Amino acid sequence: MPVNLSAPVAARLLPVAGVSLGVAEANIKRADRKDLLVIKLDEGATVAGVFTTNRFCAAPVTVAKAHLAAGKGIRALLVNTGNANAGTGEQGMAAARTTCAELAKLLGCASEQVLPYSTGVIMEPLPVGKIVAGMPQAIANLKADNWFDAAHAIMTTDIVAKAVSKQVQIGGKTVTVTGISKGSGMIHPNMATMLGYIATDAAIAQPLLQQMVSEAANRSFNCITVDGDTSTNDALMLIATGRSGVQIAESERAAMQTAVSEVATVLAQAIVRDGEGATKFITIKVEGGKDEAECKNIGYAIAHSPLVKTAFFASDPNLGRILAAIGYAGVGDLDVGKLKLYLDDVLVAENGGRAPSYQEEDGQRVMKQSDIAIRVVLNRGKVNATLWTCDFSYDYVKINASYRS
Amino acid sequence: MPVNLSAPVAARLLPVAGVSLGVAEANIKRADRKDLLVIKLDEGATVAGVFTTNRFCAAPVTVAKAHLAAGKGIRALLVNTGNANAGTGEQGMAAARTTCAELAKLLGCASEQVLPYSTGVIMEPLPVGKIVAGMPQAIANLKADNWFDAAHAIMTTDIVAKAVSKQVQIGGKTVTVTGISKGSGMIHPNMATMLGYIATDAAIAQPLLQQMVSEAANRSFNCITVDGDTSTNDALMLIATGRSGVQIAESERAAMQTAVSEVATVLAQAIVRDGEGATKFITIKVEGGKDEAECKNIGYAIAHSPLVKTAFFASDPNLGRILAAIGYAGVGDLDVGKLKLYLDDVLVAENGGRAPSYQEEDGQRVMKQSDIAIRVVLNRGKVNATLWTCDFSYDYVKINASYRS
Question: Would you call A397 an interface residue with chain B, using a CB distance cutoff of 8 Å?
Answer without folding.
Answer: yes
